[in-house]
Amino acid sequence: MTAEVSLGALGLHRGGHLLLKQALRALPVGGRLVVRGSDPALSVHLRAWCRSQGHRLDLGAAPTITRGAAEVGRWQGAQRAGSLGEPVAHPQATWGLAARGARVEAGGPAFAFPLSDKDTVWTDDAARIYAQAAAAQWDPATAIDWDAPFELPDDVEDAVVQVMTYLIENEVAALLVPSRFLTKLHPHFREVAQVLAIQAADEARHIEVFTRRAGLKRQELGLSTTGGQASLKTLLDEPDFALASFLLSVLGEGSFLSLLRFLQAHAPDPVTRQVARLSAQDEARHVAFGLAHLRRHASQEPGLLSRLATAIERRHDALAHTAGLNEEVFDALVLLAAGSWAPADLARGFDRVVALKEDMDAGRRLRLQRLGFSEAEAARLSGLHTRNFM
Amino acid sequence: MSSFVLGAVAYDPKVVTIWEGFKTWFATQGFDFDYVLYSNYESQVEAHFDGAFDVAWNSPLAWLQSVRIAQGTGRSASGFCMRDSDQDLTSLVVVRADSDIQTLADLRGRSVGVGAPDSPQATLIPLLSLQEAGLALGEDVSVRVFDVLFGKHGDHVGGERLAARALVAGEVDAACMIDGNHLVFSAEGTLPADGTRILHQTAPYDHCIFTALDGVDEETLARFRALLMGQRYDDPVVRPLLDLEGLKAWEDGRTEGFAQLDRAVDALSFDGAAAVRDFIARVVDKNQAGG
Asked: In this structure, are B124 and B39 located in the same domain?
């Protein structure tokens, strides 16, 4: 079979090889292609190009390429990396970074993605949660009225700064945990990777706005305690994706949802109320994703609930010797909610913090029951949750 | 039982990747293969005659050096496999498009940039064209050497690229390069579009070739050769190795494609060729004295 291609004045150094490839693809291996063209270097470049591509070249009256087998050989044994819409149960390590649904050349390197089992990572809700998150991104520079006028008593401002200091270190943990699992997740589970990535971006933004609020009137931040960091470290140390997202998203960020709503309602200044409101929107998505993939996981793995329960108990035991929520944060929350040192205000602030803890507990019990725990078990496990909230 | 050992020149860090890959693959075929790397072809050729390894992956010039040393010492060298991409290369003499140089003879009184002094493709073979066109090198035409990685026989592209840049910058009147690099330099813009003209294209010649000396274990050599020739580009395990080494298929070795270089080594009035002749004489002497 012989075909002909005309390159006109186009040389191989300026894209002429595309026309050659297109024409050769239409020929069987061994088929012949007569090349016509007027580029002065055409025959020189044809010789070099054919040699590099594994084609034979005969230079006669008109250069003629005989198609070699290399291109066909390269794609023998190639495999589709699943389909565009639906992940497979066990994506192959050699699919690597390829887009889901791409045709992957055989013989590629095997990537080590420990999270490559659909049952342990997937939820059909991931695409929806990611889309919501992408649509709900907000710009800290414009979404918050940083110039809103307010003046707080010095001690109340200090209390706000202490709470911000506490929030920042908790959000750093919430940034690092999904980021670490993102690097372990097989990219085949694209939507889950996107959720984890945007979750990390959310936390980066939260860190920014809490820091900015803390620095609004003060040059120095508040206290960071050993107990608080010890509690957060247990989250970073948890190597299991299900257990880490259970402890962080379902229990920790779930409790934080109550805290942020508390700040949104009771903070003494408009800027704090705004940053709390916007951050709470994001945290609600994080909790929803954690619940969604753990519910699916629990339906696939009957033993998961008991593993989750054990994780809470283990963490509780590990933290039993620590002080729990540091006094400075607790007192700061009371003063922040009180707004002044007046005894009546302090009493009201105290009651609000007590109500906050009850709200956190109620939320945790509800979410534990959604995962499949009995009411009694949910109540027991919620009671074991870290006193540091996150 | 000891390994069948290949000698190769480390002209680039990827050489380690290539031969480690081959070693692993040969092991999967039940063939005990190892390799030793040299920093230059002269050391490799000399070590080959010292019996340091079984077969050499030789540049065309190292092949000729081996053949001549074998001839001078009563031994024999044979070439047995080459890449499909080693066959039918040509070299070019390139001038600026607006140059008044129309023939090789017009280079009289001008300068030509070449690659490394021991590069067959970028120096020795194109200079032979100039000399055979009646130009006395260094007298009728000045030769400017762009010496990158001497001893690597031009395996590294750097010297050719420097010569091409010097041509474009007006520092030399002509530059020599292999046809494939002309395509690369034109596509990447080192040679500006329509800014240069091909003055001369040499006759086709061949490039690298596996080399064995007499005394090699013929049975093991045959097995090595059969395994190489059996490597197929549609095998996903082998393909990355072939891609790294720049071939689609192994071909039987042929030695008639080295005739131009053979002439260049004998005839060129050029330091690079003289150094080759001196090297051959020295190793012949050494082996005769030792033998």
From this structure: no
